[in-house]
Write a structure and sequence with these properties.
single chain; 161 residues; six-stranded antiparallel sheet; three-stranded antiparallel sheet; 2 helices
């Protein structure tokens, strides 16, 4: 029988605990609304979690949108479908995911996602990189030269295949 994997090293070294929890209420408005009508809500950013993870609620607009297959070198990405149907690329094929379905993508794992019709999902990155700049820049629809776009994608650990 193998022993369970141990817990990571302690990061809190106090004695009695501390008051440090915070709440993001469900009725807070989304941080980003895209031209397509989709939204992105910052549930917990990498800055808020000391870089441990970033968690976002992604709600699609009516028309299907989403990125083509790509991978990340330094972050894993997780998808948990809350409502509707989301097409997820698992590195082999596009699969239809529904409420309660989960996809884990380790560093280097090929993936993509597409959705519409108001479908929503939780999108989590670990560790918590600065994804907010990525989402906000794309939402502004800024024109970029080929070189600027390549540098932007490299800065945000996004490699298209």
């Amino acid at each position: 029988m193998s022993l369970p994997r141990p817990y990571p090293p302690d990061t809190y070294h106090g004695e009695g605990g501390e008051v440090s929890a915070w709440v993001r209420r469900d009725d807070e408005p989304p941080e980003i609304t895209y031209r397509t009508g989709g939204t992105c809500e910052y549930i917990a950013t990498g800055d808020q979690t000391a870089g441990r993870f970033g968690l976002y609620r992604w709600t699609f607009g009516d028309v299907e949108t989403g990125p083509d297959p790509h991978f990340h070198r330094s972050i894993s990405e997780q998808f948990y479908v809350l409502s509707g149907e989301v097409r997820l690329y698992d590195g082999r094929a596009w699969v239809t995911a529904r409420s309660g379905d989960f996809l884990y993508v380790p560093e280097g794992g090929l993936h993509g996602f597409r959705g519409g019709g108001g479908a929503s999902m939780l999108l989590m990155f670990a560790p918590g990189g600065p994804r907010e700049d990525y989402f906000e820049t794309l939402a502004r629809g800024e024109a970029m030269s080929e070189e600027e776009r390549a540098e932007f994608m490299l800065r945000h650990d996004t490699f298209w295949v």
